[in-house]
Amino acid sequence: LLAREQAWFDRTVTDIFGFRAIQIGLPQCPLLAQSRVAARWTLDTEPPAQIRADPHWLPFQENSLDLVVLPHTLEFTSDPHQLLREVYRAIRSEGQVVISGFNPFSLFGAKRYFGRSLTPPWNGSFIALYRLKDWLSLLGFEVTGGALDCYVPPFANETWRARFGFFEAAGDRWWPIAGGVYYLRATKRV
User: Fold this and answer.
1) What letter would DSSP give residue 76?
2) What is the pTM of this model?
3) Distances (CA, A) of 62 to 16, 25, 29, 52, 96
């Protein structure tokens, strides 16, 4: 899953231009590696983040960022609304936000619901895609792209994942909204 997400982020951020980009959360994963933005940082509350700060109160001026990447950040924050408001404040007009999240209406969501666990990612608060699009729209973002991915059930065993590999081929065609992970790209409109 991580390799697939890295590939999607690499394809998406490569054509976004600007001067400053920030990745909030998952600092151990270089999701901005293929970005052409000159100044790129990771932000989190703990190392190995380059900037250690509370994501709910970003240490950046208003309208100062060109790109913000949120890899599964909204599911593991105490206040996703505040985080999105802060991203909107810090991002410039026509700036981009790229988000990934776990889909609660998928086999990943079913595992989270029925197999309650205290380990990530199953302890996160999965946010529905339609709800996230609504939040972005209310803030003033326009969704300009996205995708769903990972239709295979979240088995820990590689043999079982291989047996259900046909889910990937049929996923986009037969149950397009049931991908385990969704990706969104949105632009700030003023």
Assistant:
1) G
2) 0.89
3) 20, 20, 26, 19, 14
